[in-house]
Each structure stands twice: as structure tokens, then as C-alpha cells.
Amino acid sequence: MNAAREHGDRSSFGVLWIGTLDYGTGPLQASDRNIPAQRLATFPNSVTAISYGGENMRTALQSRIDAGNPRFQLKMYWSRPSSNGNGHRDGLQYSQGIISLRVECTD
Asked: Which of 48, 64, 91, 92 could pair with 3 in a Cys bridge, judged by C-beta atoms 3.0 to 4.6 Å apart?
């Protein structure tokens, strides 16, 4: 994932987690934010560009394929989702055009 647009101070957020979950096939709802994810990777809160290819990502993807699931969905979330309370926007902003999942098949 290419670098994000940075906003404010992310130091109070803890670390950035990436996990997998199943949102289902319908449109996302605000309540979907509360669906727990299976954590795959952890990044420091200073990260902006993300690249990850760990074994647990491969295992999670393969289990979805084996189960016949047509989607592999990821969630990015902070370990402490609270801002510093100064009234300014804090966080990272990724545009949809720069997010991609590349899968390479090997025998």
C-alpha cells in the first residue's frame, strides 16, 4: 500500500493492526466497525506505506479459498482508537486507488 495522507498526531492511537474478517457481501454499515478481526500484522503508529507478506496472511487467504469464500476482506485498526482530544483530525487517509492486494501462486 502506498503512503497515506497523514493527519494530526497519531501517537495516542497505539499501534496499527491489520486483520482479516468477514463483513459479508452487503454494503458496509457503521456498525461493521465493531466486528472483531483476526490480527495478522502489527505496525508502529508512525507507518504510512504498508507492505506485508507474512505466513499468517497466506494461511488466512488459503483458509478462505478452501472454505469457498468469494471474498478476502481486511481491516486496518488502531490498538487504542482514541485521539489526543485537541479537536483536530488525527489518523491516516488512504485513497481506494492506491490499495491493492497482490497474490502470487506457486506450486
From this structure: 48
Separation of CA 96 from chain center: 13
Does residue 31 fall inside a structural domain? yes
Residue 37: pLDDT band (50, 70, 90) is very high
Q: Side by side, which strands form the sheet with 73-78? A: 38-43, 16-21, 73-78
Residue 104 within any structural domain of the chain: no
Q: Which residues contact 99 (CB under 8 A, 6 or more apart)?
A: 1
Locate 38 and state its grid cell.
483476526
Q: What is the pTM of this model?
A: 0.74
- If 0-12 CB within 10 Å is exposed, 13-18 middle and 19+ buried, where does residue 33 land? exposed
For residue 23, count other CB atoms closer than 10 A to its CB: 15
SS3 56: helix
